[in-house]
Amino acid sequence: MTAIRRRLALAVAAWASLCLAGTAVQAGGLEVAPIGVDFAAGQMAQTITVTNRATAPATVQLRTFDWSQPGGIDRLAPTDAVVASPPIVTIPPGREQVIRVLLRRPAGAAEKSYRLMVEEIPVPVPGQINLALHLSLPIFVSAAAPGQAKITWSARPAGGGVVELAARNDGTRHAKFDGLTIATRGGAASQAFSGYVLPGQEKRWRIPLRGLDRAGQVTLRGAGDQGGVDATIALDGSP
User: Fold this and answer.
1) Residue 72: what are its φ and ψ, rounded to 5°?
2) pLDDT at 21 over 80
3) Fewer CB under 10 Å: which end of the chain, C or N?
4) In Å, how far from its chain's centre is CA 216?
5) What integer pLDDT is reported at residue 204 of this predicted model?
């Protein structure tokens, strides 16, 4: 029988772990710090550090993407507006590599958003399947003038006991939310969820919710980078 060895080199499936800006994340033998890149107005270069704490060399590839939210869904597209140098590197065991993140174009009137993918390239091992995952780091480029997020919430029943929550950001800076939950008037609550809402865009979540009252309202609670969230939202529309 083929042995399956799960090497969780770098994993980030949930945006929640990315809300801990300024800290390091470690999975398997690799550690990355910080876990987000912020360019102040006028800044054109930043760095991250990748450390190999394993006992074997690790090869890491870095790619940059433009980040947008058309239709309320996170979408990534390759970009050369920001680049990582070196784009691929092999790190000896117990050593670290400083990666330069270089901005080629400043932001305009609103903050600009990108993603940096840090991916381990697994070494083939006979009789084993190595599953090396990737880390997705947010990159934010501040506009020349200070900005802030302006969030408007809405919700509608989407059928099958699902509520679609939408957050519209009419500001010039991103907002991030962690530990959000939706509850019905009857007390049924959803599991916690998180995410970013980019400036000038909308983020949507489809949340299973028992006891959903189609004609009623839901309560949204959680934490955001501009303070706590506590809102009552009327359910609009029909599935």
Assistant:
1) 80, 10
2) no
3) N
4) 31
5) 98
CATH topology of domain 151-234: Immunoglobulin-like (2.60.40)
- Which has the minimum average pLDDT: 11-20, 84-93, 132-141, 142-151? 11-20
- Tell me how far apart the alpha carbons of residues 70 and 202 are, in angstroms, rounded to a whole number: 8
d(CA 108, CA 82): 15
The better pLDDT of the pair 25, 118 is held by 118
For 18, list phi and psi in degrees, rounded to 5: -80, -10
Non-local (6+) Cβ contacts of 1 within 8 A are none
Structure tokens at 210: 């028992």
User: Domain 3-141 adopts which CATH fold?
Assistant: Immunoglobulin-like (2.60.40)
124 DSSP assignment: P
pLDDT, one tens digit per residue, over 165-184 is: 999 999 999 999 999 999 99
Q: What are phi and psi of 19, to 5 degrees?
A: -75, -10
The reply to whether 151-234 shares the fold of 3-141 is: yes
Please state the rounded mean pLDDT for residues 16-36: 69
pTM reported for the whole predicted model: 0.85
User: How many C-beta atoms surround the C-beta of residue 28 within 10 A?
Assistant: 18
Domain boundaries, the chain: 3-141, 151-234
Rounded to a whole number of angstroms, the CA Rg of the chain reads 20
